Structures are given as C-alpha cells and as structure tokens.
Amino acid sequence: MNIEIPYKIYLEESEMPKQWYNVRADMKNKPAPILNPATLKPVTVEELSPIFCTELAKQELDETTPYFDIPEEIREFYKMYRPAPLVRAYCLEKKLGTPAHIYYKFEGNNTSGSHKLNSAIAQAYYAKKQGLKGVTTETGAGQWGTALSMACSYFDLDCQVYMVKVSYEQKPFRREVMRTYGAQVTPSPSMKTEVGRKINAEFPGTTGSLGCAISEAVEAATTQEGYRYVLGSVLSQVLIHQTVIGLETKAALDKYGIKADMIIGCAGGGSNLGGLISPFAGEILRGEADYDIIAVEPASCPSLTRGRYAYDYCDTGKICPLAKMYTLGSGFIPSPNHAGGLRYHGMSSIVSQLYDDGIITARSVEQTEVFKAAEMFARVEGILPAPESSHAIKVAIDEALKCKETGEEKNIVFGLTGTGYFDMVAYQKYNDGEMSDYIPTDEELEKSFATLPKVE
Ligand SMILES: *Cc1c(COP(=O)(O)O)cnc(C)c1O
C-alpha cells in the first residue's frame, strides 16, 4: 500500500468517537480499589457522592464496563475543537535526518491550550445534570482551571479554583483567562479553608503544591451546599474521558493503514497518557497487537521511575480517598525551580498498574533537555509546545535519532498535549541560560516515602 500521508490527518466529525473506552475492563490485574481514608475499606459510590458528582463516582469505580456513551451535549461541545489533528512531523523528521515517521496528536487547539478540556466539559456536564450550583477544584500550572472555567461557563455553573500559589504569582494571565470565563480564583494555600490555614502554619511561606490545593478544594466543596469537587487528572474517570485522544489517534492511523510501533506521552497524573494509550494498551491486553509504550516524566518528580507502588494519599491534607499508585509520598513537594509542569507526587492507578505489569515503560528526563527539545520543535514545526508536552517531544526525538543509527523506519506517535504561551517565564529562564535541573536525592525521597500510610 502506498498512500501519501498528509501533513495533517483530519477525521470527519462523523468519525469522532461516540463512546469513551474504559481499559480496566480488559485488564486482568485491575488497579487496586481506592480506599476510604477513615475506614481503609474500598470506597462505595455512596461514600464518594458527597465529594464527586454521582455519575462520575460511578465511572470512577466501574472496572467492568468497557465503553461509556459520550452524551450528545458533550459531543456537541467537542465539535467546537475536535476531532483534533494527528500531524505527521515531516519538518522535524527532516531536521533530524531520521528514517522514522513521527506523528503527534495535537490537543492544544482550544483556548485552554490543552487536552484538559476533554474531561472538564464532561465533568461540568454531569454536575449540571445533577442540578448542582457549582464545582470547586485545584489547578497547578493553570490549564485545568482554565479548561474547567470554560466548561462551567458553557453550562452556567459556578466555578471556584484554588491555584497553586507559585503559579498564581508566575502566571497572572492564566488567572485572568479564568476570571474572564467567570471563575473565582484563590491562591493556595489560602486562609479560606481550615486545611489551608493549617498548611500555612506548618510551612510558612510555602509556594504550595497540587496536593495542598486539592485538599482546599475538597474542603470547599464539602462545606458548601450544592457543590462538588472535580479533578483534572489522576482519577480513572478523567482518564476515561481522555480516551477520546487515543480513540481518535487510532481511527486516524487506521484510516491511512499506519501501524504505530511506539507511543509516547508525558505523565503528570497520567490522564493524557492513559487516554492516548488506552485503546493501544487494550489491544496488547487482548493479545491483538504489540506496541512500545513510553511514559515520560520529569527527573525532578519521578513517580514511576523512582517512586514506590503503594497506597498513598492523593492530597497533602489526607482527606481524599487513598489510591494504590506509583508515588513519591504525599509529603513530596517538588523543587520550586522546577518549571516544566508535571509536579504531582502520584500517578493514575490505571497507569500505575499497566506499568507494574510491564504493559508500558517509563523514562525520566531533565528539564533543560526538555526545553532544548521544545525549542527545536517550535522552530521546525511551528507550534510553541507546553513544557509538559515537551517531555514527550524529547523522548520522541531521542527515539527518532536511534532510528537514524539503526536505519529503522519506525512509526513513532506522541501526544502533544498543549501549547506553552503561558509558560514564558520558564522559556525566559531557558533563553537566559538560567534553567537548572533539580533531581531529588535518594535521601530526600526516603524522607518523603516515610510519609506513606501503613496499609495492608
Ligand atoms: C496537565 C497537563 C499535563 C499533565 O497531566 P496528565 O494528567 O498527566 O495528562 C500534560 N500536558 C499539559 C499541556 C497539561 O496541561
């Protein structure tokens, strides 16, 4: 077969997935159940319902239903920015002089600038359907808060965002985008919540972490009537919504008869990676195909490559359910000079189990190398990538260069999760030669592992 591959492979609207895929249905080893932090027993939908929307709580705990219908209202919203293109990186291939074929799935084609909108709109939809007044959440770099603000304004819901303090200060424009969409944005840790006041007292001057912000947002949701908490990553429900990425990618590849050899994604909490790889991992699990799947994480926050596979708290305040995952310990706060996103201490329980079972592999990369890859990509492919996405770019480039040595014409697919327009402070550091790499020592990690709860 000799079909010419266009620079951008677009799907028709009618080819957009009508269902999300739940890879747990095909996993022989299911992720361990999430536990109630008070009883240490597996949580039930009833126990999750005061925190999460009921429909989302059901998705969270459902490990047997392989497909969930995407409600028509969500599909209509998706049509504003989807199907997202799968791009053949001809210019990057040429620059590298590689025989490999590189493809990237671009999720930055919406105002929030990342894939996070795929789940934000789903979560806002279920909140609206349940008749809630609003939702609370945390945001780190700001992409999730922006996505959720957009989704909430679309469905006319109140949106309260706790934003990690360091980002709140470094990214005033992100904050203003959220406010433009009607969200209320509070720097975290704040003095608004009990847990925020406690963290501020214990760590004066702290620049915050995702874990702290989650605790504040959960407290805010459970102490206001008609509110629920929503989360932009880590949870299985989020990963399910993000499978729209992988399903479209697979449909686009199939359309041109392309068989991927390698699929690469960046991993913070694991949602875009899980969403991108789920349909492919499903084929591996069912014995239908084989792929090299690589999760890429920062060397400064290396949950998969250096973490423990253990039950841990999902938040610093220890009020969320416990999940068994690859984790650095909920007490882990990445160095403030780490600019490149992906700062969460843990990892999706689905991604963790797939990794533990050897279905996927993982690699960690240092941030100066990541920005070097980002710069090359921006210069040849035109898109200014988000630092998070650039972790995947870095490994895709590494792998393409290996193919140059071996002469292999591998098909390398990676997830380009978003754009980096709001990350110019980080780019500035890189351009000024002031970016440093901070890699935690074993001793520091041990200290953090000591905060792991004793379960089992
Ligand atoms: C949030 C974010 C990530 C990391 O989150 P995951 O849940 O690991 O996907 C990656 N890239 C971009 C652009 C993001 O906004």
How would you sum up this structure, described in words?
- It contains 18 helices and 15 strands.
- It has helices at 45-48, 54-61, 72-78, 90-96, 117-129, 143-154, 165-170, 172-180, 194-202, 210-222, 236-255, 271-285, 303-306, 349-356, 367-381, 387-406, 424-431, 442-449, and strands at 8-9, 19-21, 67-69, 86-88, 101-106, 134-139, 158-164, 184-188, 227-229, 262-266, 292-298, 308-313, 322-327, 361-365, 411-416.
- The strands form four sheets. Strands 1-4-5-15-10-11-14 form a seven-stranded mixed beta sheet, sandwiched between helices. The chain has a four-stranded parallel beta sheet with strand order 8-7-6-9, with helices on both faces. A two-stranded antiparallel sheet has the order 2-3.
- Bound molecules: pyridoxal-5'-phosphate (PLP).
- Pyridoxal-5'-phosphate binds at residues 114, 116, 143, 233, 266-273, 342, 386, 388-389, 417-418.
Tell the overall outline: globular
Strand content: 15-25%
Tally of alpha and pi helices: 18
Low-confidence stretches: none
Notable traits:
456 residues; 41% helix; binds pyridoxal-5'-phosphate
Topology:
Layout: E1 8-9, E2 19-21, H1 45-48, H2 54-61, E3 67-69, H3 72-78, E4 86-88, H4 90-96, E5 101-106, H5 117-129, E6 134-139, H6 143-154, E7 158-164, H7 165-170, H8 172-180, E8 184-188, H9 194-202, H10 210-222, E9 227-229, H11 236-255, E10 262-266, H12 271-285, E11 292-298, H13 303-306, E12 308-313, E13 322-327, H14 349-356, E14 361-365, H15 367-381, H16 387-406, E15 411-416, H17 424-431, H18 442-449
Parallel strand pairs: 5-15, 6-7, 6-9, 7-8, 10-11, 10-15, 11-14
Antiparallel strand pairs: 1-4, 2-3, 4-5, 12-13
The chain binds pyridoxal-5'-phosphate.
